[in-house]
Each structure stands twice: as structure tokens, then as C-alpha cells.
Amino acid sequence: MKVVVVSHASVNEPHRAPYDRLGRVPGVEVHLVAPSHIGLGSAGRKKCDPAPADAAYALHALPPWFQRSGRFTWYRGLSAVLRRVRPDVVFLEQDPGSLAVIGSALAAPRARCVAFSVENILRDRWLDARRALWELKPRELARDLSVATLCSLGAVAADGVAAISDEGHLLFRQGLGWSKPLQTVPLGTDVDRFAKRDVSTRRAELGVSDSFVVGYFGRLVPEKGVHLLVEALALLPRDVRLLLDMFTNFEPGSYAESLMERARVLGVRERIVTFDVPHAAVADYMNLCDVVVLPSLTTERWKEQFGRVLPEAMACEVAVIGSRSGNIPDMIGQAGVVVEEDSPPAIAAAVLELRADPERRRRLGAAGRRRVIERFSIDAQVTQMLSLFDEVLKGSSAH
What we know:
By secondary structure, the protein is α/β, with parallel strands linked by helices. It has two domains: 2-188 and 377-394, Glycogen Phosphorylase B (Rossmann fold); 200-375, Glycogen Phosphorylase B (Rossmann fold, 3-Layer(aba) Sandwich), CATH 3.40.50.2000. Helices cover 40% and strands 18% of the residues. The chain has a seven-stranded parallel beta sheet, with helices on both faces. Helix 8 runs parallel beside helix 9 (255-266) and helix 8 (226-233) crosses helix 13 (344-355). The longest helix is centred in the middle third of the chain and has 20 residues, at 138-157. It is globular and about 60 Å long. The chain starts with a strand and ends in a 5-residue tail after the last helix.
């Protein structure tokens, strides 16, 4: 079976682990399409990491078009790769309603196109367009009409969907009436890379050896609720420190800058430790933490779709706290603490409880790793992918 994978995240080599594992399955040949570069705003551009010498996939680094909008992203040269490889399956890390899915179906009509979707909010895109028309909002109208058209075409072009969560699976099957092959396929966590390890030297380097460390990892955007962590820090004892994965500089007017300004106002700036490291080094910093928190906030257009940092922290046997946004409660299960959204006092109370009970933290950490190995590991992802591919290949092509 020949599989072409189209993956924006695979610009970073660590994110290719599931596809490397897939390529090591007997009888499976993997070709991985990744962007040749991605924009990093004022920080410039990041070039695609090269493939390791022993990689079990062929890497095709192609120039991306319209990469700021996932639905409209296309890769120059993708059609040529599809014609040359002649894959049985094209697996795209995109919603069905995206240009990459539709274009791949046209470029490789004999292949089965499978979309890897993060969608978990039911929306009528045509209704959005009508509302924009009624409210005389031309920019929103153009956007919503374009998205609605892509969704309609993508429903025909895609032969199957891999939903990233059970919530997304339910949305497609019941909310959208999806009748084609559909399976829940998690973002697999590398449980060898993300594992418990001694980082006492790193704790000393950061000056947190005697602190209770609360960590946040991920994007710095308002819907991730990082400001709630800053507010909660002000309610906690002085030995509690916040380890914050910033990723970007404190640009004027940025969310990151607003976080630091709020921390100064609350008198907790000196208790926040910031860092910016490649994803390959994140596991070391997760192991620094006594607790990792994901305080995501549900909005009209977004709720937590997966929460990748949670299974990574759980695999490191670090206790986790998450809000009730989207997929977080299902991700955590009984292996962590779930709190109400938008509540610094609730976050602070959960941190205090875990700070006072090291044995509970240990039990939650062990339970978290078991849960990740069973449900959210790379092996679990590859198993579900192969099952979905087999199901799709048994059906007739939709193109």
C-alpha cells in the first residue's frame, strides 16, 4: 500500500514520528509532503527539517501557498508528486472542506483521500454566509461563501475521515450525517521521547529546585486561557512558580506582552520562568513540572480540539489539570483534574490540592501514562489509521 501524507506540522521532524512508524509496517510505503518553510511572523521563516538518514518515509518538502489559512493551503508540486507516486491512499491533515483535499482528489482520481479533521463545532456554513449578507458584511460574506463551497465540495472529494477526537467523530456521524468511513484517530504521543526522567540539574539551572512548578505549554493565544494561569498564580503561595513556554518574543501589543504586563500588575512577574526550545526538548521541561495546566476557553468559533500537551505531560507521569473546554475532559478521564472554564480560583484550588498531596500526584501521573499508552500513543494512532485505510480501500472510489 502506497500512502502519501500531507502534513503541515511535519515541517518539524519530531511531528513525523507516526508516519515514520507507519512506514515501518510491512507492505506500507510512505511519502511525506511537508512545507518547505513556514512563516514565523517577525521571527522570519523556519525551513523544513531534513529527513534522518534512517527515516522510513520519502520526504517531499514543497513550497506552500496561502499557509495562513489552513483550508486554502496548497503545495506547489503536490499534483506532480501524486502523479509520480500513484498512491493508494492520500492522508491529509486537513478538514474535508479544504483545497488540499479537493485538489488531491482531482490530481489522484484513483487514490482514496482521507481527511484528518480537528473539527468539533457544528456550524452551518451556508447559514453563516446568509447572516453575513443580511448584516451587510462583505468581507465575512466572501469568507463564509468560500468556506461553505469548500465544505460542500470536500464532502464529495473525501473518501473517509479520521476524526481527532470522539467529540469530532460524533459531530461527523450525527451532526453532519457523514456516511462514509469514519474513525477516531488520535494525535499519537511518542511515549519513548515523552517519559519520566531526572531533570534535577535543569531545575537547578532555572532556579526552581525548591519551588512547586506549574507548567503551560502551547500556543500563546487568548482562547488557550494563559491569562487565567497568571491570575491564578497571584492566588497561590510564593513557592509556586509558573513555567511558561512562550515560543515568540514579547512583541508590542502581543498577547504575550499583555500577559507579562498583567503579571507585573499582580506582582508575580518574578515568579514566571519563560523559555523557548524546539519541540524535541519539550519533554525535559515537562519533567521539570509538578503539574501541567491547560486552561482553554470555549468561544463561539473554537473549543479545545485535542490538547496535545496533555498526553505529552501525562506520558511524562506529570499530573495534569484541564478545563472543560472541548476534548479536554475526555482526554484526561480519571487520570487528572478537570476544572470549570474561566475560573482562576478553580485553577488555584486544584493546584493547591495537588501541591498538598504528593502521593496523589504520583498516582495520577502513573495513571496518565497508562492512559496515553493505551489510547493516545503513536502505536494507537497507526493502528487506527491502518484500520481506516483498509476500510476506505474496500469501498469504491468517490472520484
